[in-house]
Amino acid sequence: MSKSKKTQSAEHDDNFISKSQRKRDVEKLQKLGQELVGLSPQQLSALKLDEQLMEAITLAQKIKNKHEAFRRQLQYIGKVMRQVDATEIEQQLSHIRQESLESKNQQHQLEQLRRELIEQGDARLQPLLNEHPHLDRQVLRQWIRQAQKEAQSNKTPKASRALFTYLRDHLFSS
């Protein structure tokens, strides 16, 4: 059979996957594996991963020198991932990314609220208490005043941190 006939028959075969496409698929799995390596142990344990894949990821996280050995381990992770359902892992990762984004947004909202409370004092405190009547006015006023004094005297912002922690615990605790 001539080379052109082989190519034509391969192009008409529905199951034919080009070598370039296979390489792209493998690289995609390796990138997904690298993202898994970047997760915290808590996030990894939340994922339902194959035992062999989990061991490979844990080993990659332990590699100190992020050069050749790390690259080879990522290739191995990509190879292991060919035997598991990568779409399910991608969905779970997407959920983790969304949670992380929501957490960052909450963090920014809290930072902004703390800054406004310290800068505006009681003028900002009253609307906050109207929205969230369960908050303790005295505790908040005390921390706001202490944070204002610390800011004026360039001291360590202990009260500012305490204010942030109180707000986080009472506004975004689920």
What is the topological layout?
Elements (H helix, E strand, L loop, with lengths): L2 H10 L6 H19 L3 H6 L4 H12 L5 H14 L4 H35 L1 H10 L5 H16 L5 H14 L3
Helix pairs in contact: 2-4, 2-5, 4-5, 6-9, 8-9
Element-by-element helix/strand order: HHHHHHHHH
Structural class: mainly alpha
Using only C-alpha atoms, the radius of gyration works out to 26 Å
- What is the level 1 CATH name of the largest domain? Mainly Alpha
- Total number of distinct structural domains: 2
Query: Sheet bearing the most strands, described?
Result: none
By CATH, the topology of the largest domain is Diphtheria Toxin Repressor, domain 2
User: Helical element count?
Assistant: 9
- Outline, from the CA principal axes? elongated
Supply the CATH superfamily name of the largest domain: PSPTO4464-like domains
N-end to C-end Cα span: 68 Å
What is the helix content? Answer: over 70%
Q: How many E-type strands?
A: 0
Query: Average pLDDT, to the nearest integer?
Result: 84
- Which architecture of the largest domain does the CATH hierarchy give at level 2? Orthogonal Bundle
Unreliable sequence segments: none
Strand content: under 5%
